[in-house]
Amino acid sequence: MTALRLYDVHCHLQDTRLANDLPAVLARAAEAGVARMMCCGTAPEDWPTVLDLAARYPRVRPSLGLHPWYLERRTADWRERLEALVAANRCGVGEIGLDHHLPADTRPLQLAAFRFQVALANRYGRPASIHCRRAWRPLLEELKAQGGLSAGGLVHAYGGGPDIVAALARRNVSVSFGGGITRPNARRPVEACRAVAADRLLVETDSPDILPSGCPGPHNEPACLAEVIRAVATARGLEINEAANLTWDNARRLFAGLESSEERG
Ligand SMILES: [Zn+2]
User: Fold this and answer.
1) pTM here?
2) What string of DSSP letters covers 136-183?
3) How far, in Å, is the centroid of ligand 1 from the Cα of 194?
4) Domain range list for the chain
5) From ligand 1's centre to the CA of 39, what distance in Å?
């Protein structure tokens, strides 16, 4: 059997559930063929950790952002700090987003934070990693208002319908699938996965959350991407290695600007 090569486009290695056991987590990832992991920060307090992990581990790439769940962790100077870090480091922007499961009174602040970070990604030509729950209309409106994502990006753990996939593509946004598509009764993610253009399909774990079916746990980790790619391959009618190669190529293209020049080839 030929070894798979996989890109986990969205995970949180800085989470203590993984960080406390990271050498073993990364060894299991390597064994499963996970050759790149995009590690997404969520609030100012974890940005230095994310950058440190990316500096220490060659398979880890950094992305920095303020997640809508953690708006209350923002500091008075979070915008300046984020911009300075983005300017100084080869990193993506995210995890950012809009979440309408949260109380409605947080929406103005969510939108302001999202607006600033999309503009930041576009100003520095960086890919963005987006979280969206039941906020598709405001998400698409904001992306349209800003002319889409100049360096592309993705909606992670995609939970929208197949109809929204094309609207996202028009804003230069790809779609990533995680543990949700591995559920035995998954229908919506399977339908959405079939609707994605071949060059916009990505896979992720979102570890340590969203444990895929078939993974031992207790926490999700990048090695579990093997279960996700199996489910994506089944949904698309592909061999597992075809799905792996397709999503690897898509992720490498999206994140090419984050590789140093000798690693880009
Ligand atoms: Zn996440």
Assistant:
1) 0.97
2) HHHHHHHHHHTTS-TT-EEESS--S-TTHHHHHHHTTEEEEE-GGGGS
3) 23
4) 6-260
5) 9
